[in-house]
Amino acid sequence: MPKSEVSANVLLETFWCFFVFKMSIPVVDFGAYSLSEKDLTEEQLHKLSNELKTAFTEVGFVFLENTGITEEEVDHVMDICKKFFLQPEELKQPFSRKSFANNPNHGWVSLETERLNPRRPGDLKEAFNTASLHPDIKWPSSEALKEFKEIQTSFFLRCKELSLRVLRVMALSLGLDPELFLNAHSLIGTDKNGTTLRSLYYPPVESEKAKEGQLRCGEHSDYGSITLLFQSSEGLQVRKRSGEVICAPIIPGTVLINIADLMQRWTSDQFVSVRHRVLLPPVGDSSTRQSLAFFVQPDDDVLITCCDGSNKYPPITAGDYLMERFNDSYGRN
Ligand SMILES: O=C(O)CCC(=O)C(=O)O
Ligand SMILES: [Fe+2]
Fold first, then answer.
1. How much is the pTM?
2. CATH number, domain at 21?
3. In this predicted complex, what is the ipTM?
4. For 184, which of 144, 262, 302, 310 could close a Cys bridge (C-beta 3.0–4.6 Å)?
């Protein structure tokens, strides 16, 4: 892309902030199907599926309350992750992404390595991807981090359970076989499925020293089926299809769930995957930010074909699709 076009694009995307509206993302009570509930009545299911359908077809994002995943649980995960991130670089290096033979996506991603909007400089964030639960994975083992593996693994499994419940309601909401999405996510937690728990740490920023156009996390839409997001503080902005930008609030105890690109494609654009980003803090604000994103991905070998039979998009396997998207975020070299 010519240089002038690059800066024109960045300028255009910076323009976003002038269109920020105080419009909220829907909040849905998931209590009837929370992790501690076994059964729910037809009536409860019907209500939930209607509410999720409205949120996912109109906004692409929803806050779920009463899911069974508590604020304390989330704080516990964030605390141990912060201990990992605050270590000196040489202690994080041995856990770098791409250094694990059985899963290239597992591990630590250093500051400015990833650009979720390839037209911007590298994102001002660090991440740790729990992408594999394979017994051969080497985990941090220092005294301060001896619980790291256990905490990551159990939170991964809690998020998996909630995701499967949400996927079931989503299929029902479109009048599909309730098992349709579930059957395509039967290998979450194995190396034949790309689902990843990503802990993000946004260190203090001197905004005036950041590179031109640099953000904490560039504009992007997620890759897989759905994403569960837990955030410590504000900063996330969501762009609606209409072009309006919503500043996502912090609602303690809720899970923010969004549709990702493969799900939009699967549902022939009925569910919408919208772009979002994390801004730099205001000048003079040296606070850090943390978030946990659980990126749900169908099993690698599943062929994604439009579920309404329309063939609006050509079939693609979930694994090939994910690889293509990683190449965009990390550069093709
Ligand atoms: O940190 C956040 O709040 C959002 C991060 C995000 O959108 C992503 O990593 O895909
Ligand atoms: Fe995202």
1. 0.92
2. 2.60.120.330
3. 0.99
4. 302
